[in-house]
Write a sequence for this structure.
């Protein structure tokens, strides 16, 4: 009985990990000048096996994306958010669920 409980718990944890999204590599992120909600800034996008990621930073200029490192990943009810930072700036990308 104990064996089945352990196998059941391990299965649930494995499925949960399999469903977790992987943040895009900084080298796969593209950027372009854009206007959203009447604000000028930079739109960021990337595509990986999990889908289309997007982000927007108002009043920003193009960045050297090769200097960005993934800092953290957060999951909300509606999206998964990846935060990237360099020495002087930061951006976020979201994947809508």
């Amino acid at each position: 009985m104990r064996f089945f409980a352990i196998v059941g718990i391990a299965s649930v944890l494995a499925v949960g990990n399999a469903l977790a999204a992987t943040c895009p590599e900084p080298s796969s992120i593209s950027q372009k000048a854009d206007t959203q909600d009447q604000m000028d800034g930079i739109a960021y996008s990337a595509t990986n096996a999990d889908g289309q990621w997007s982000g927007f930073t108002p009043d920003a200029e193009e960045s050297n994306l090769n200097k960005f490192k993934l800092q953290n990943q957060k999951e909300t009810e509606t999206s998964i958010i990846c935060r990237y930072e360099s020495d002087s700036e930061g951006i976020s990308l979201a994947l809508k669920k």
In short: The longest helix spans residues 2-19. Confidence is low (pLDDT under 50) at residues 3-18.
